[in-house]
């Protein structure tokens, strides 16, 4: 930057004792049944995706979810290809207990690859359809699947490569509807969301 540059350094001051952190003051915008589905989609172009490797332990996966504030991790290999996904239900629900009961071992020995859903079992919603969908359509899809999450995929128009573009979360949708949805109980989650949506008719 030359001496005749129009840009000037800003003045500063020392942080005083007792300085606090600014906490978020804005909640996610409330949505309605007819809002664009994009309003409730976590877009991986804007928010870094939460990932983990296949050899991580279930404890490490749970800690990673807590740290990121999510309930699903995409499992990637050394070349960052998606090879599966794992949810909080997988790491903290009945499945680990059943696996130990059937095959022996300890919880601490279980790895992500033991319980993850492989990539060829992952259902993807097409981004082009999501762009034309409404929140009610996404709720109906999740309810039909009986799942807390739905991933969104798209194809790179230049390379033809498939990629995961974003994710829908029943918890996030509930939060944006103004509901305190914090549960693994899929039926209860959708009952609460459906009740909120029905009030709009």
Automatic annotation (TrEMBL):
<feature type="region of interest" description="Disordered">
    <location>
        <begin position="1"/>
        <end position="25"/>
    </location>
</feature>
<dbReference type="InterPro" id="IPR046342">
    <property type="entry name" value="CBS_dom_sf"/>
</dbReference>
<keyword id="KW-0129">CBS domain</keyword>
<feature type="domain" description="CBS">
    <location>
        <begin position="41"/>
        <end position="102"/>
    </location>
</feature>
<dbReference type="Pfam" id="PF00571">
    <property type="entry name" value="CBS"/>
</dbReference>
<dbReference type="InterPro" id="IPR000644">
    <property type="entry name" value="CBS_dom"/>
</dbReference>
<protein>
    <recommendedName>
        <fullName>CBS domain-containing protein</fullName>
    </recommendedName>
</protein>
